[in-house]
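lol ok so funny story. i was supposed to be doing the assay writeup but got distracted and ended up predicting the structure for this chain instead. priorities right. anyway since i did it might as well share w the group, maybe its usefull for someone
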Amino acid sequence: MARLVVDGMNVIGSRPDGWWRDRDGAVRRLLGDLQGLARADHDAVTLVLDGRPLPDVPEGPHDGVEVVYARRSGRNAADDRIVELVRDLDAPADVTVITSDRALAEQVRALGATVDGANSLLRCLGR
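and the output, tada:
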C-alpha cells in the first residue's frame, strides 16, 4: 500500500486564502479533505503538523488519516518529523511526501521517497 505523508502547514500556507485568520480551522479543513482522499484512494495518509495539538485533533488516527505533530517547536520542526517518519519506514520507496519545501524534498528523496508539490495535492482535492 502506498503512503502519503503531508507537510500540513506547507500545504495550508501555499494558498493565500486567509488561512492565517483561522489556522485551526484550516487544519480541520485539510484533515477533512484528506479523510475523503483516504476513503476514495485507500492509501495510508499521514498529516504532519506544526504547533500545539488541537484539543479535538490529538495525535493518532482520524478516520483514515494518521495525525502527528512536530516533536519540538521552532524552524523545520515538522520537516524533522517527516524525515524521521520516512527514515523509520520499511519501504520509503512506497512513500510520497507532499511538500513544496525544497530542502525537505531533497532530504526525503535521499531516503528513497517520492515528492509531489502542495499545489498538486490541492488540485487533487479540488481546491
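The two ends are 26 Å apart (CA to CA). The mean pLDDT is 92.
back to the writeup now i swear
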